[in-house]
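Materials and Methods. Structural model of Diguanylate cyclase. The 434-residue sequence of Diguanylate cyclase from Streptomyces gilvosporeus was retrieved and submitted for structure prediction as follows.
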Amino acid sequence: MVNPWLALESGADPVAHTRRVRRAHEAFLADGTVLPPVRRVVADSWRRSARARAASDGAAPIELDEAALRAYRDAHPLARAMPVFRELLGSIAQDGAHLIAVCDPQGRMLWVEGHPGVRRQAERMNFVVGARWDERHAGTNAPGTALASGHAVQIFAAEHYNRQVQRWTCAAAPLHDPRTGRLLGAVDITGGDHLAGPHSLALVRATARAAEAHLAYGTRESGSFLAALGRDEALLTVDGTRLRLGRRHSEIMVLLAHHPAGLTGEQLAVLLYGEREVSPVTLRAELSRLRQLAGPLLASRPYRLTRPTDTDLTAAETELAAGRLTAALDAYPGPLLPLSEAPGIRRLRTALEDRLRRALLTARDPALLRRWAGTPWGEHDLEVWEALEDTLPPHSPAREVPRATAGRLRTAYGLTGSSSAHSSAHDPRRPPGL
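The predicted structure was written out as tokens:
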């Protein structure tokens, strides 16, 4: 069976393959048609890049200057894994043909290392520290596509969405917090066509696993933790064992973790079902199935968790309450159980999102506003785009994107010449129909 994450089948001619993929790339840019031999993972990435209006020519944007990068990088969890990356990938990075790179969940390059000559070549396309290489800003590329797909992947030559990157081949794997499962970033190796073989994909995947094991070493093995931000299905970790929960069980666990004193069946039903008529038997059946999964962690009369359970929701709230806004955004990979319609979950989700937005708008930090606006949950946030435009110098070219985006969103809202601040009848985060 062909590995869909591998760029070239064994024995394939890289020159001929590059020629065919380049023709397919030009056809896609012309009319959106995807032709053979483009892999599905690449086709999906091209479509995401096109929807995000990623440039098919040009350099990736630089978002972190030297001072901001140094402080952010030193505090990043992946800083502890750099010895692993250097030990396992450093030798090939110094052979004069490769680079190793590590990025954060937003695709911002935190480390780019390798032979100085290769680094100088990569600088022409802004493959440098501080630059943003997620698909939205740089198009299809190994670290960006690994972040988007959640899987180790190779991107070969003309498979890159941006023509400036098509002379390179790269392989990358996502990295996760071993305790919470939260996405931490990706590790990448970049070089020439010789990276298209299966060895580079296997190597980068093994390096990612080794780094995660290194991060897990010495961390607390006892205790329980619930990760539910940015997930439709929560991840429960109990004494080092990870368990993915179904959607209803995810809702129940979040609510019980948020109410450590416990909830009666009636209280829990209201938070889960609201005014809907639901038989008590239905809730008892859900709790019985959950108890089979969670074991002694779940107790009844009232329904409660038998030991303190930390959550990523609480972690983000704690950072926000302490005024550590950058750390709060780091701890916020997305809305709480975003597909949940349970009233109790919706209240928690909206409360955290509103507090984060208000803190961002009050702080008026362009980097943080840009970071929020660059997310799927913030890209339609008119008020944030307007604030970002206002915080930038009047004649700065950087104002062009927020100005244009705010204009498009005002049109989508049906507003003409007015700002969202004067339009309280509209939700400034989401145009009608979205």
